[in-house]
Specification:
The protein has 303 residues and is α/β, with parallel strands linked by helices. The protein has a single domain, classed as Rossmann fold (3-Layer(aba) Sandwich). Helix content is 35%, strand content 18%. It has 9 helices and 10 strands. The strands form 2 sheets. It has a 7-stranded mixed beta sheet, sandwiched between helices. Strand 4, helix 4 and strand 5 form a beta-alpha-beta unit. Helix 1 crosses helix 2 and helix 3 packs across helix 4. The longest helix is centred in the first third of the chain and has 17 residues. The radius of gyration is 19 Å and the shape is globular. Its main location: cytoplasm.
């Protein structure tokens, strides 16, 4: 039996208070915004509308509907096989870093295009800049090493008339994070990153299998949210990638007020704290996020 994930009947209190997706999906409004979604909506045993989230096409279509209905993004698509992220969780990251910026602004979240954010590894989906700009009016630079992802993100920006707010830049070196992206004299309020969490493609598939087993799925339907190798894993996995981004952040301490990254594994944190202490970080924060059964963290630091 295919795993059917119903619309939530109660508020998702584990999401950030400003997250637009705390309540159940309003399928009537979503279908009105994007009629193509109707094809993927069925009813569960309780007669409630639901979508089969094991179907990658359904996942992409509900993302398109959410982006259009909640953020006014009329044109959004990604190349086949690229990461199609869940919108509610991505929105949470944006809202939590907004809280961090508010700490230096008398407790008020700063808005407008004078706030500049760097999204490291923006991906083909360009999700963080889209949500961040629509929610707070911030301007974004999105860096990306994959040329197909760069072209996709640039198309999304252009098709939605956001070229003045979102700048997609090609990272020409896989050896660097900020070097080659941050221009001389350029200043950012905060950087963000959704790093590759795994150390190999085998690990990705094993964790996918365990996820579907927990959901009662007899056979592994694959990666319903997609993702190419460089989006999902890298040599050394999350710890090695985080070590690289932290080390290079020290070199750009005068260019960025804050740095941040998602952390998937709690066991990664002690090594990060040790590295940041060695590098001389003056302020380190860990923010816990929960979406359903999944818990992740945002590591935030500055010098």
């Amino acid at each position: 039996m295919a795993n059917k994930i119903p619309s939530n009947s109660t508020e998702k209190t584990n999401l950030h208070p400003r997250n637009l997706h705390r309540g159940r999906y309003d399928f009537k409004a979503l279908i009105k915004a994007l009629p193509a979604l109707r094809e993927f909506v069925t009813e569960n045993e309780q007669g409630e509308p639901t979508v089969n989230f094991t179907n990658p096409e359904a996942v992409k279509t509900i993302n398109q509907a959410l982006l259009k209905q909640s953020y006014g993004i009329a044109s959004w698509d990604i190349p086949e096989g690229f990461l199609c992220p869940p919108i509610p969780g991505r929105a949470d990251y944006i809202h939590y870093i907004a809280d961090v910026l508010a700490e230096d602004n008398n407790g008020k979240v700063p808005t407008g295009n004078s706030i500049k954010v760097l999204d490291v590894g923006v991906g083909a989906n360009c999700i963080y800049p889209l949500i961040g700009h629509k929610a707070y009016g911030w301007s974004f630079v999105g860096s990306e090493a994959d040329y197909i992802a760069v072209a996709s993100a640039q198309k999304i920006v252009k098709d939605n008339g956001l070229a003045g707010a979102i700048d997609i830049r090609k990272q020409t070196s896989y050896a660097h994070i900020f070097e080659g992206i941050i221009k001389s004299g350029e200043k950012f309020d905060i950087t963000m990153c959704n790093p590759p969490f795994h150390s190999s493609s085998k690990e990705v598939l094993q964790k996918s299998q365990r996820k579907w087993e927990k959901l009662g799925q007899d056979t592994n339907p694959g990666l319903n949210f997609g993702g190419r190798n460089n989006e999902l894993w890298c040599e050394g996995g999350e710890p090695r990638f985080l070590n690289k981004i932290m080390s290079e952040s020290k070199q750009f301490a005068k260019s960025c007020k804050w740095f941040s990254s998602l952390i998937s594994q709690k066991t990664t944190l002690p090594g990060c704290y040790k590295s940041l202490d060695y590098l001389g970080a003056t302020d380190v924060k860990t923010i816990t996020m929960s979406q359903g059964q999944k818990t992740s963290r945002i590591l935030v630091w500055r010098f």
